[in-house]
Protein backbone atom coordinates (compact mmCIF):
# COMPACT_ATOMS: atom_id res chain seq x y z
CA UNK A 1 0.00 0.00 0.00
CA UNK A 2 1.50 3.38 -0.88
CA UNK A 3 1.76 5.99 1.86
CA UNK A 4 -0.85 8.32 0.37
CA UNK A 5 -3.68 5.81 0.26
CA UNK A 6 -6.93 6.52 2.07
CA UNK A 7 -9.15 3.83 3.58
CA UNK A 8 -12.76 4.18 4.73
CA UNK A 9 -14.07 1.56 7.17
CA UNK A 10 -17.78 1.49 8.02
CA UNK A 11 -18.87 0.32 11.44
CA UNK A 12 -15.56 1.75 12.62
CA UNK A 13 -16.72 2.18 16.20
CA UNK A 14 -17.24 -1.58 16.51
CA UNK A 15 -14.78 -4.27 17.50
CA UNK A 16 -13.88 -5.55 14.04
CA UNK A 17 -14.10 -2.15 12.36
CA UNK A 18 -11.59 -0.69 14.82
CA UNK A 19 -9.20 -3.65 14.38
CA UNK A 20 -9.43 -3.32 10.58
CA UNK A 21 -8.88 0.45 10.80
CA UNK A 22 -5.83 -0.06 13.01
CA UNK A 23 -4.34 -2.63 10.65
CA UNK A 24 -4.84 -0.45 7.55
CA UNK A 25 -3.30 2.51 9.40
CA UNK A 26 -0.29 0.31 10.32
CA UNK A 27 -0.08 -0.61 6.62
CA UNK A 28 0.38 3.10 5.85
CA UNK A 29 -3.12 4.29 4.96
CA UNK A 30 -4.85 7.41 6.22
CA UNK A 31 -8.01 6.00 7.77
CA UNK A 32 -11.58 7.28 8.00
CA UNK A 33 -13.77 5.37 10.44
CA UNK A 34 -17.50 5.85 9.83
CA UNK A 35 -20.23 4.85 12.25
CA UNK A 36 -23.76 5.80 13.22
CA UNK A 37 -22.49 6.19 16.79
CA UNK A 38 -20.66 9.52 16.46
CA UNK A 39 -19.19 9.68 19.98
CA UNK A 40 -17.86 6.14 19.95
CA UNK A 41 -16.33 6.45 16.48
CA UNK A 42 -14.62 9.72 17.46
CA UNK A 43 -13.10 7.99 20.51
CA UNK A 44 -11.93 4.98 18.44
CA UNK A 45 -10.37 7.31 15.85
CA UNK A 46 -8.48 9.25 18.56
CA UNK A 47 -7.22 6.01 20.08
CA UNK A 48 -6.06 4.58 16.73
CA UNK A 49 -4.37 7.86 15.76
CA UNK A 50 -2.45 7.79 19.07
CA UNK A 51 -1.56 4.10 18.82
CA UNK A 52 -0.55 4.03 15.14
CA UNK A 53 0.80 7.57 14.69
CA UNK A 54 -1.25 7.82 11.47
CA UNK A 55 -4.04 10.21 10.51
CA UNK A 56 -7.28 8.53 11.64
CA UNK A 57 -10.56 10.44 11.72
CA UNK A 58 -13.99 9.35 12.89
CA UNK A 59 -17.13 10.54 11.11
CA UNK A 60 -20.75 10.01 12.05
CA UNK A 61 -22.93 8.71 9.21
CA UNK A 62 -25.84 6.37 8.66
CA UNK A 63 -24.48 4.11 5.92
CA UNK A 64 -28.00 3.12 4.87
CA UNK A 65 -28.98 6.72 4.14
CA UNK A 66 -28.00 8.01 0.66
CA UNK A 67 -27.61 11.67 1.75
CA UNK A 68 -25.46 10.67 4.71
CA UNK A 69 -23.24 8.46 2.53
CA UNK A 70 -22.81 11.13 -0.15
CA UNK A 71 -21.93 13.68 2.55
CA UNK A 72 -19.29 11.41 4.07
CA UNK A 73 -17.68 10.67 0.68
CA UNK A 74 -17.63 14.42 -0.04
CA UNK A 75 -15.89 15.03 3.28
CA UNK A 76 -13.31 12.38 2.42
CA UNK A 77 -12.78 13.93 -1.02
CA UNK A 78 -12.42 17.43 0.49
CA UNK A 79 -10.23 16.34 3.39
CA UNK A 80 -7.98 13.74 1.74
CA UNK A 81 -8.46 14.23 -2.01
CA UNK A 82 -8.92 10.52 -2.69
CA UNK A 83 -10.45 7.26 -1.50
CA UNK A 84 -8.60 4.04 -2.28
CA UNK A 85 -9.99 1.37 0.02
CA UNK A 86 -13.58 0.87 1.09
CA UNK A 87 -14.30 -1.70 3.79
CA UNK A 88 -18.02 -2.36 4.18
CA UNK A 89 -18.09 -3.68 7.73
CA UNK A 90 -21.12 -2.07 9.44
CA UNK A 91 -23.91 -4.55 10.12
CA UNK A 92 -26.97 -5.33 12.17
CA UNK A 93 -28.11 -8.73 13.36
CA UNK A 94 -31.65 -9.71 14.36
CA UNK A 95 -32.01 -13.28 15.52
CA UNK A 96 -35.68 -13.78 14.61
CA UNK A 97 -36.64 -17.20 13.27
CA UNK A 98 -39.33 -17.70 10.62
CA UNK A 99 -42.17 -17.73 13.14
CA UNK A 100 -41.19 -14.40 14.67
CA UNK A 101 -39.90 -12.68 11.53
CA UNK A 102 -41.42 -9.26 10.79
CA UNK A 103 -40.92 -6.70 8.06
CA UNK A 104 -39.82 -4.23 10.74
CA UNK A 105 -37.06 -6.64 11.78
CA UNK A 106 -36.06 -7.66 8.25
CA UNK A 107 -35.78 -4.24 6.55
CA UNK A 108 -33.10 -2.54 8.68
CA UNK A 109 -30.86 -5.61 8.41
CA UNK A 110 -31.09 -5.57 4.62
CA UNK A 111 -30.61 -1.81 4.52
CA UNK A 112 -27.45 -1.73 6.64
CA UNK A 113 -25.89 -5.05 5.60
CA UNK A 114 -26.67 -5.14 1.88
CA UNK A 115 -27.99 -1.83 0.54
CA UNK A 116 -25.35 0.26 2.31
CA UNK A 117 -22.30 -1.42 0.67
CA UNK A 118 -23.85 -0.84 -2.77
CA UNK A 119 -24.62 2.76 -1.88
CA UNK A 120 -21.10 3.50 -0.68
CA UNK A 121 -19.53 1.92 -3.76
CA UNK A 122 -21.83 3.98 -5.97
CA UNK A 123 -20.76 7.17 -4.19
CA UNK A 124 -17.05 6.25 -4.43
CA UNK A 125 -16.98 5.61 -8.21
CA UNK A 126 -15.98 9.18 -9.20
CA UNK A 127 -13.02 9.03 -6.80
CA UNK A 128 -11.91 5.64 -8.13
CA UNK A 129 -12.15 6.98 -11.69
CA UNK A 130 -9.94 9.89 -10.72
CA UNK A 131 -7.41 7.70 -8.88
CA UNK A 132 -7.34 5.02 -11.59
CA UNK A 133 -8.42 2.18 -9.31
CA UNK A 134 -9.42 1.07 -5.84
CA UNK A 135 -10.16 -1.81 -3.51
CA UNK A 136 -13.41 -2.88 -1.89
CA UNK A 137 -13.57 -5.44 0.90
CA UNK A 138 -17.04 -6.45 2.05
CA UNK A 139 -17.39 -8.20 5.39
CA UNK A 140 -19.67 -11.20 4.92
CA UNK A 141 -19.95 -14.07 7.42
CA UNK A 142 -19.44 -17.83 7.54
CA UNK A 143 -23.24 -18.04 7.88
CA UNK A 144 -23.66 -17.27 4.17
CA UNK A 145 -22.57 -20.90 3.61
CA UNK A 146 -23.82 -22.63 6.76
CA UNK A 147 -27.14 -20.86 7.32
CA UNK A 148 -27.98 -18.96 10.49
CA UNK A 149 -30.29 -16.16 11.67
CA UNK A 150 -32.67 -15.57 8.76
CA UNK A 151 -32.41 -11.91 7.81
CA UNK A 152 -28.73 -11.65 8.78
CA UNK A 153 -27.74 -14.74 6.82
CA UNK A 154 -29.80 -13.76 3.78
CA UNK A 155 -28.12 -10.34 3.83
CA UNK A 156 -24.65 -11.89 4.09
CA UNK A 157 -25.35 -14.29 1.20
CA UNK A 158 -26.50 -11.15 -0.64
CA UNK A 159 -23.17 -9.51 0.19
CA UNK A 160 -21.43 -12.38 -1.61
CA UNK A 161 -23.66 -11.88 -4.67
CA UNK A 162 -23.05 -8.14 -4.52
CA UNK A 163 -19.29 -8.74 -4.26
CA UNK A 164 -19.22 -10.98 -7.32
CA UNK A 165 -21.42 -8.63 -9.37
CA UNK A 166 -19.50 -5.49 -8.42
CA UNK A 167 -16.22 -7.29 -9.18
CA UNK A 168 -17.41 -7.59 -12.77
CA UNK A 169 -18.89 -4.12 -13.01
CA UNK A 170 -15.94 -2.28 -11.46
CA UNK A 171 -13.11 -4.29 -13.07
CA UNK A 172 -12.84 -1.83 -15.99
CA UNK A 173 -12.02 0.86 -13.40
CA UNK A 174 -9.31 -1.40 -11.92
CA UNK A 175 -11.32 -1.68 -8.71
CA UNK A 176 -11.13 -5.10 -7.09
CA UNK A 177 -14.07 -6.27 -4.97
CA UNK A 178 -13.70 -9.16 -2.52
CA UNK A 179 -15.40 -10.44 0.61
CA UNK A 180 -14.02 -11.67 3.92
CA UNK A 181 -16.25 -14.20 5.67
CA UNK A 182 -15.27 -14.64 9.33
CA UNK A 183 -16.49 -17.24 11.79
CA UNK A 184 -17.36 -16.35 15.40
CA UNK A 185 -15.40 -13.50 16.98
CA UNK A 186 -16.18 -12.52 20.57
CA UNK A 187 -17.57 -8.97 20.27
CA UNK A 188 -20.57 -7.14 21.76
CA UNK A 189 -22.31 -8.08 18.47
CA UNK A 190 -22.17 -11.81 19.20
CA UNK A 191 -22.68 -11.44 22.96
CA UNK A 192 -25.84 -9.31 22.61
CA UNK A 193 -29.10 -10.98 23.62
CA UNK A 194 -27.44 -14.05 25.22
CA UNK A 195 -27.05 -14.84 28.89
CA UNK A 196 -23.53 -15.61 30.16
CA UNK A 197 -24.26 -19.35 30.25
CA UNK A 198 -25.82 -19.32 26.77
CA UNK A 199 -22.85 -17.39 25.42
CA UNK A 200 -20.30 -19.79 26.99
CA UNK A 201 -22.13 -22.79 25.53
CA UNK A 202 -22.30 -21.03 22.14
CA UNK A 203 -18.54 -20.40 22.20
CA UNK A 204 -17.83 -24.03 23.17
CA UNK A 205 -19.90 -25.27 20.22
CA UNK A 206 -18.01 -22.97 17.87
CA UNK A 207 -14.60 -24.09 19.14
CA UNK A 208 -15.66 -27.72 18.78
CA UNK A 209 -16.73 -27.26 15.16
CA UNK A 210 -13.54 -25.42 14.16
CA UNK A 211 -10.81 -27.70 12.78
CA UNK A 212 -8.09 -25.28 13.98
CA UNK A 213 -9.64 -25.47 17.46
CA UNK A 214 -10.13 -21.81 18.42
CA UNK A 215 -12.34 -18.82 17.67
CA UNK A 216 -11.39 -16.10 15.18
CA UNK A 217 -9.81 -12.94 16.58
CA UNK A 218 -10.34 -9.37 15.30
CA UNK A 219 -6.70 -9.46 14.10
CA UNK A 220 -7.36 -12.59 12.01
CA UNK A 221 -10.08 -10.66 10.20
CA UNK A 222 -8.03 -7.46 9.93
CA UNK A 223 -5.08 -9.38 8.43
CA UNK A 224 -7.30 -10.81 5.67
CA UNK A 225 -8.71 -7.35 4.90
CA UNK A 226 -5.20 -5.91 4.86
CA UNK A 227 -4.11 -8.50 2.28
CA UNK A 228 -7.11 -7.95 0.00
CA UNK A 229 -6.67 -4.16 0.25
CA UNK A 230 -2.98 -4.39 -0.66
CA UNK A 231 -1.10 -4.46 -3.96
CA UNK A 232 -0.33 -8.14 -3.26
CA UNK A 233 -3.99 -8.85 -4.07
CA UNK A 234 -4.08 -6.75 -7.25
CA UNK A 235 -5.17 -9.70 -9.44
CA UNK A 236 -7.76 -11.12 -7.03
CA UNK A 237 -11.36 -10.05 -7.44
CA UNK A 238 -14.81 -11.54 -6.88
CA UNK A 239 -13.50 -13.90 -4.17
CA UNK A 240 -14.71 -14.83 -0.70
CA UNK A 241 -11.88 -15.35 1.77
CA UNK A 242 -13.09 -17.44 4.72
CA UNK A 243 -11.39 -16.56 8.00
CA UNK A 244 -12.86 -19.47 9.90
CA UNK A 245 -10.07 -21.86 10.93
CA UNK A 246 -11.74 -24.40 8.64
CA UNK A 247 -15.20 -23.97 10.22
CA UNK A 248 -16.65 -23.04 6.83
CA UNK A 249 -16.28 -26.76 6.04
CA UNK A 250 -18.37 -27.84 9.05
CA UNK A 251 -22.13 -27.88 9.60
CA UNK A 252 -23.54 -25.20 11.94
CA UNK A 253 -23.41 -26.17 15.64
N1 LIG B 1 -18.41 -10.75 15.48
C1 LIG B 1 -18.56 -11.87 14.77
O1 LIG B 1 -18.53 -12.99 15.28
C2 LIG B 1 -18.73 -11.78 13.29
C3 LIG B 1 -18.68 -12.97 12.53
C4 LIG B 1 -18.85 -12.90 11.16
C5 LIG B 1 -19.04 -11.68 10.56
N2 LIG B 1 -19.10 -10.55 11.32
C6 LIG B 1 -19.29 -9.28 10.64
O2 LIG B 1 -18.25 -8.39 11.02
C7 LIG B 1 -18.74 -7.04 10.96
C8 LIG B 1 -18.45 -6.29 12.25
O3 LIG B 1 -19.00 -7.00 13.33
P1 LIG B 1 -18.71 -6.62 14.85
O4 LIG B 1 -18.76 -7.88 15.62
O5 LIG B 1 -17.50 -5.74 14.95
O6 LIG B 1 -20.02 -5.80 15.19
P2 LIG B 1 -20.25 -4.45 16.06
O7 LIG B 1 -21.70 -4.45 16.39
O8 LIG B 1 -19.23 -4.36 17.14
O9 LIG B 1 -19.95 -3.33 14.99
C9 LIG B 1 -20.86 -2.95 13.99
C10 LIG B 1 -20.84 -1.45 13.92
O10 LIG B 1 -21.71 -1.02 12.87
C11 LIG B 1 -22.31 0.18 13.28
N3 LIG B 1 -23.54 0.44 12.53
C12 LIG B 1 -24.71 -0.22 12.63
N4 LIG B 1 -25.63 0.37 11.84
C13 LIG B 1 -25.00 1.39 11.19
C14 LIG B 1 -25.44 2.38 10.26
N5 LIG B 1 -26.70 2.41 9.81
N6 LIG B 1 -24.53 3.29 9.82
C15 LIG B 1 -23.25 3.27 10.30
N7 LIG B 1 -22.80 2.37 11.21
C16 LIG B 1 -23.67 1.44 11.64
C17 LIG B 1 -22.58 -0.02 14.77
O11 LIG B 1 -22.79 1.21 15.44
C18 LIG B 1 -21.33 -0.76 15.21
O12 LIG B 1 -20.34 0.13 15.71
C19 LIG B 1 -20.22 -7.15 10.62
O13 LIG B 1 -20.37 -7.02 9.21
C20 LIG B 1 -20.58 -8.56 11.03
O14 LIG B 1 -21.68 -9.07 10.32
C21 LIG B 1 -18.95 -10.56 12.67
List keywords for this structure.
9 helices; 15% strand; globular; Rossmann fold; 7 strands; 253 residues; binds nicotinamide-adenine-dinucleotide
User: How large is the count of helical segments?
Assistant: 9
Number of strands: 7
How large is the radius of gyration? 17 Å
CATH architecture level-2 label:
3-Layer(aba) Sandwich
Fraction of residues in β-strands: 15-25%
Average of pLDDT: 95
The shape, in one word, is globular
Any overview of this molecule?
This protein has 253 residues and is an alpha/beta fold. It has one domain (6-242): NAD(P)-binding Rossmann-like Domain (Rossmann fold), CATH 3.40.50.720. The chain contains 9 helices and 7 strands; from the N terminus they run βαβαβαβαβααβαααβ. It has helices at 15-26, 38-52, 66-80, 103-131, 143-146, 150-170, 188-191, 196-208, 218-229, and strands spanning 6-10, 30-35, 56-60, 85-88, 134-139, 175-182, 240-243. The longest helix has 29 residues, at 103-131.
Outline the fold blueprint.
Elements: E1 6-10, H1 15-26, E2 30-35, H2 38-52, E3 56-60, H3 66-80, E4 85-88, H4 103-131, E5 134-139, H5 143-146, H6 150-170, E6 175-182, H7 188-191, H8 196-208, H9 218-229, E7 240-243
Bound molecules: nicotinamide-adenine-dinucleotide (NAD).
Nicotinamide-adenine-dinucleotide binds near residues 16, 35, 112, 185 and 187.
